[in-house]
Design a protein that fits this description.
heterodimer, A: mainly alpha, Arc Repressor Mutant, subunit A, 2 domains, three-stranded antiparallel β-sheet, 3 strands, elongated, B: alpha/beta, Rossmann fold, six-stranded mixed β-sheet
Chain lengths: ~190, ~260
C-alpha cells in the first residue's frame, strides 16, 4: 500500500492539514488500513523534501500544518496511477508451499490438510461478509475493500478445490515422478520462447 | 482440528445447538442401486437447522449436496435415518401429508429458477397459495405485496422472459418465502448470476431468516456460503467439517482511535 501516493491523491483535491489527511486516509480505505501518526508525518516530510508537496509555514507543528500538492506531485501521482503494479513474479505463497511439502510426505492426509485451510478461509470470509450485512454504514470505499478481500480469499479456496480435484484424478492414474534435477517451470517457459 | 477427517457420527454430535431445531436430519444415509453397482450418495448425515438460522452446505459437485436438499425437502426418502420437520418425522407421513408440507411449509429455490413461463411474476409467486386453496384474489394480493418487499412491485405483471436473470431469481425467492413458510431450501441459488445479483439473492434469504425462517443453501461458491451463520462441508457424501461461529467483524477494522 503506497501511503505516499494515497496522500498525494488526497492533496490533489485541495490543500489539507496533517491531521485531516490522516482521518481522510483511514475513512477512504474503509478503516481497514490504519495509519499511525508518525507514518503520516514522516511521509509528508519526505514528499515535501522531494518537491511533490509544499507547505507555507515551516514553524507550525505537523497536525496544524497546511499542505498542498505541487505540479511535480500531480505528475508523480498520475504516473503512479497508470503504472500497473508488478505482478510478473508469482508470490512465494506459503499455502502453496505447505501443500507441496505435504504431498511429498507419506503420512499426511492431504485432503484433510486442504480442509483445515479451507475452513479457516471460509470463517475469515464469513467475518468479512458480516461487514456487508449492515448496509446503513457500508459506503463505497468500504464495499470495494471488502470485495477485494472476499475475491482474494475466494480465489485461494478455489485453488484448494482445484488441488482436491487434481489429487482425485491423479490417485486414479499416478503421475510420473518429477525429475528432481531440472527446474521444470523455467524449462517450460524457455521452451515456449 | 475437530471434526475434520473423523467419521460422520463425531461431527453429528457437534452440529446443532440446544435450541429446538426446525429441520433435523438424523443419521441419514442414501444409496442408489444395489449389489456391485450400489452407490452411496449420503452417508450418516446428521444436521440440525434452528429457526432463524442460515446454514450453507459446501462441497464439490458429486459430493451429495443436491441429494441432501431433496431429502431434507421430502422429495426423496432416505435409505436409512430420519428427517424431522418442526419435530414431525417425515417417515410417519402419507404422500398427501408430505405434499401439503411442501406446499405450506417449505420453499424451494433452484439454480434454474423454475418459474412457469406462461404465468406472470405475481401468478408464479401466488401459485403455491392457490394450490393450497387460498382464493385467487387474496393469493395475488399477497404475491404483489411480497414482490413489492423485494423491490419488484412494478414487475409483478411481467412474464419470466421479460425479466432479467436477477429479477427472475428474486421472483423465485418471493415464491419460496410467501405465505406461512418456515423453511427455505436453495440449491445453488445464484446459478449463473453475477456477483452483485448473487449477493442480492443471499440478502433476501438472510432477511427471511431474520424473520424466523430456517434456511439451507447448498453451493460450491464460498462467497455465497460466507453469508451463512454456519457452513458445513460435504465430501463424498459425508459431513466432514463445519465452521465455528465467526468472531465479530470488528476485529478486521482498526479504529483510528487506537493510534
Amino acid at each position: 500500500m503506497s501511503v505516499r501516493h494515497a496522500l498525494l491523491g488526497l492533496l490533489s483535491e485541495g490543500p489539507k492539514y496533517g491531521h485531516q489527511l490522516r482521518q481522510e486516509f483511514e475513512a477512504r480505505t474503509g478503516d481497514v488500513w490504519p495509519l499511525n501518526v508518525g507514518q503520516v508525518y514522516t511521509t509528508l516530510q519526505r514528499l515535501e523534501r522531494d518537491g511533490l508537496i509544499e507547505s507555507d509555514d515551516a514553524e507550525t507543528e505537523g497536525p496544524q500544518r497546511d499542505y498542498r500538492i505541487t505540479e511535480a506531485g500531480r505528475e508523480e501521482l498520475d504516473h503512479w496511477l497508470r503504472t500497473p503494479p508488478d505482478m510478473t513474479e508469482p508470490p512465494r505463497d506459503e499455502l502453496v508451499i505447505k501443500v507441496l511439502v505435504a504431498l511429498a510426505l507419506p503420512d499426511v492426509d492431504v485432503a484433510d490438510l486442504l480442509q483445515i485451510h479451507r475452513r479457516y478461509l471460509v470463517e475469515l470470509m464469513q467475518q468479512w461478509t458480516r461487514l456487508k450485512e449492515d448496509e446503513a454504514d457500508f459506503d463505497l470505499s468500504l464495499a470495494l475493500v471488502v470485495d477485494a478481500e472476499l475475491f482474494r480469499l475466494d480465489s485461494v479456496i478455489r485453488w484448494l478445490d482445484a488441488v482436491d480435484g487434481r489429487l482425485k484424478r491423479f490417485s486414479v492414474e499416478p503421475w510420473p515422478a518429477a525429475d528432481p534435477t531440472a527446474p521444470r517451470l523455467r524449462r517450460r517457459l524457455a521452451a515456449r520462447r | 482440528m475437530a471434526g475434520c477427517g473423523s467419521d460422520g457420527a463425531t461431527v453429528a454430535a457437534q452440529i446443532g445447538g440446544p435450541e429446538m431445531s426446525f429441520l433435523e436430519l438424523r443419521s441419514v444415509t442414501k444409496t442408489y442401486g444395489d449389489g456391485a453397482s450400489q452407490v452411496t450418495a449420503l452417508e450418516n448425515i446428521s444436521l440440525e437447522v434452528e429457526r432463524g438460522a442460515l446454514v450453507a452446505v459446501m462441497g464439490p459437485s458429486g459430493s451429495g449436496k443436491s441429494t441432501l436438499l431433496t431429502i431434507a425437502g421430502s422429495l426423496e426418502d432416505p435409505t436409512e435415518g430420519e428427517v424431522l420437520i418442526d419435530g414431525a418425522r417425515l417417515s410417519g407421513m402419507s404422500r398427501n401429508d408430505k405434499a401439503r408440507l411442501r406446499r405450506r411449509t417449505i420453499g424451494f429455490v433452484f439454480q434454474d429458477f423454475n418459474l412457469l413461463p406462461g404465468l406472470t411474476a405475481a401468478e408464479n409467486v401466488s401459485l403455491p397459495l392457490e394450490l393450497d386453496g387460498t382464493g385467487a384474489r387474496t393469493a395475488q394480493a399477497t404475491a404483489r405485496s411480497v414482490l413489492e418487499d423485494l423491490g419488484l412491485g412494478e414487475r409483478a405483471g411481467h412474464y419470466p422472459d421479460q425479466l432479467s436473470g436477477g429479477e427472475r431469481q428474486r421472483v423465485a425467492i418471493a415464491r419460496a418465502v410467501i405465505g406461512d413458510r418456515h423453511l427455505v431450501l436453495a440449491d445453488e441459488p445464484s446459478g449463473a448470476l453475477d456477483s452483485a445479483n448473487g449477493e442480492a439473492v443471499m440478502r433476501l434469504i438472510l432477511s427471511a431468516c431474520k424473520r424466523g425462517l430456517a434456511a439451507v443453501v447448498v453451493t460450491h461458491d464460498a462467497q455465497l456460503a460466507s453469508w451463512a451463520d454456519r457452513v458445513v462441508f460435504l465430501r463424498d457424501g459425508r459431513l466432514v467439517d463445519q465452521t465455528e461461529p465467526p468472531p465479530s467483524p470488528e476485529a478486521l477494522l482498526h479504529s483510528s482511535v487506537e493510534h
